């Protein structure tokens, strides 16, 4: 049955791969392009490039926080395939701009367009892909399918980063735009909104065993027991597609101490990681003269090590010492990693610190596992 489901989901997995490939492909080259455009290629220590990247991250993050619940509700109303069309269509224009020219004026056109579009596009394909799996795969098979999605995403990152190491800058943006376009066309032609119409009843029956039931008008009522286990009373969270999910999130936060604690840890960890990401590549370029090829090699190394840790190391550690200790260890190693990178005295130091990636990666993975949506579903993913 799992093999059958995997075959049925091949069109979704292909869409996720093409989208991820395009996103990862441009990452190694953006530092060189940004510095050349806004600093006239004369001063590699120009701080304007760092400020622009920071503004982009903050603006897109705030916009995504507002848009994600809206996109979720619209996907329930109009269908996941329809909503997938929007981010994949909008994602074509930004790399197409830089594929045409990369001078200052065209870079700022790319910069503004990317900020506006990323409020809708960033992370949307992955979220809708998970929603598609949840809608079409029943019961505990969803967990393994979520793992397959993560694996396809990791493979797309490895392939894209390796391609960025070999391709010239102009070709990178051309390939990225073409990959987005083919992903859009492929998704519209081959992806079905629902794999089989009769699966809905089967999934409903399976979900009833885990605390989900359908009621009048098709409203989905979920007993959020794994999240609200520490709440004084059991509370039914009604997920109504006609109303904003913001009310549901507020209800969860008010009635779950462990969720609030998870959000606090996630906020500070993400705050530190985002700050490092916005300035780290510019630091390497200014300090050691890194270029597109060096960035690609470093990102490729981090991606491969992170994927291995996710597949083989994390499950064994969680089984051995538990989630809390693994998360604490990951946060500690994340701090050590940031401290080492901040005082890098030679170009080999960033490569050497990749030995800490398997541990620092646990922070991201366990944050996702303790997410209010996934916590109830994924407790069987890592035994213990």
TrEMBL record:
This protein's GO CC annotations: membrane
GO BP annotations listed: embryo development ending in seed dormancy
Membrane-related topology note: Multi-pass membrane protein
Gene3D superfamilies: MFS general substrate transporter like domains (1.20.1250.20)
PANTHER family: MAJOR FACILITATOR SUPERFAMILY DOMAIN-CONTAINING PROTEIN 10, MAJOR FACILITATOR SUPERFAMILY PROTEIN
Residues that span the membrane, as ranges: 50-71, 83-100, 145-163, 169-187, 258-283, 295-314, 351-367
Molecular function terms from GO: transmembrane transporter activity
Source species of the chain: Arabidopsis thaliana
Localisation: Membrane
Key words of the record: Membrane, Transmembrane, Transmembrane helix, Transport
Pfam families reported for this sequence: MFS_1
Record keyword Transferase present: no
Compositional bias ranges of the Acidic residues kind: 198-208
Protein name: Major facilitator superfamily protein
Region (Disordered): 198-218
